[in-house]
Amino acid sequence: MFICDCIFSVTTIYLSLGSNVGDRAGHIARAMEALDAAGVRVARQSSLYVTEPVGFRAQAWFLNCAVEAETALMPRQLLRVLRDVERKLGRRRLVAQGPRTIDMDLLFYGAQVMRTPELTVPHPRLAERRFVLLPLAEIAPGFRHPVLGQTIAELLAAAGDTFAVRRWREAPANRA
Asked: Is 125 an annotated catalytic residue?
């Protein structure tokens, strides 16, 4: 009999989730449930934000949010989990930056910095994207970018993009 005396290190991570196809809020909720089942425990979630598409403009607007989570998965394992969840929720990569049921990006893996052909952490374009920074600033305004040295709140204040980002207000349920 083998008894593992292993100590699993848990790392705080930050993710960005978005959807612009079908039941956008439902896709995000199902993605978070799938993350939890795969060993990524969501600790905090920002509000949902309606965001203008960046890049490929001829598509529906997105719902986006940021989450703080904890995981014992290593970065490449985590990336595989994210891609697997996207695939299971119907994500098809047909058009670069095109419509998607769910999109999940690893923004930060603790304070780790890594650059491989498949993964760059911190996310290389997050400081340029208000649709990422605004939800992230809601849950982690004081988190310091390990490369740029600025907090999320400082990055948001300096962000120059002009794409629309506004808090989503779900339509009230009909009352009979």
From this structure: no
